[in-house]
């Protein structure tokens, strides 16, 4: 088991990707805390043995309380996964200041706060093991852009820059920092995108939109939460002891091609 004896906290732990990460971490032997706004999350019901921690990542008081709980229970934190995130399907012209601020509060400030208050616990873990690991969630939309996702793209670009800075600052302490940059992943967020204005549906059915998205990928499919969990597990493990400061794109080859050249 790759994570035997490790302690992990996953924000957005009851969402599509977060839930898959928690389940995989448990199978790999970790003690896992699933942190989210509610126990049901974006799916129908909780599953797995991960301990649930109520957490709004944009609330510093709640972040401190969550880390205090981990410290009381475990005394250290080996792995932090910042998977909590929201998406707004609008141009900047149609985005309100409140929506802009909330997006940055969750996607960027949340990553900042959880990482900031996890660091003392992660230093304890790094002192007795090869390293501790922070895994942030960026997006391929932090490199290129989808129409109608202006604020989301901006937040993910910020997470990418923050990841590199954290890796430089805390690498000497034995804390590795990386970011996963997913493309299209089959989650409740993606299904919401298919139904929303950002899909550019033009009257197509959901099935037609889903197939169109599959077809635009070189691999002719989009990803699953388990695909993401596979890479996250490696980055959390000691096998990745030399991996830090990197943006790991997992998008089925989508961003490798020139889209306008597809005929």
UniProtKB/TrEMBL annotation:
It comes from the Bacteria. PROSITE patterns: ADH_SHORT. Keywords: NAD, Oxidoreductase. Residues 6-183 form the Ketoreductase domain. GO terms for molecular function: oxidoreductase activity. Gene3D superfamilies: NAD(P)-binding Rossmann-like Domain. InterPro entries: KR_dom, NAD(P)-bd_dom_sf, Sc_DH/Rdtase_CS, SDR_fam. Belongs to the short-chain dehydrogenases/reductases (SDR) family. PANTHER family: DEHYDROGENASES, SHORT CHAIN (PTHR24321), ESTRADIOL 17-BETA-DEHYDROGENASE 8-RELATED (PTHR24321:SF8). This is SDR family oxidoreductase. It comes from Roseovarius faecimaris.
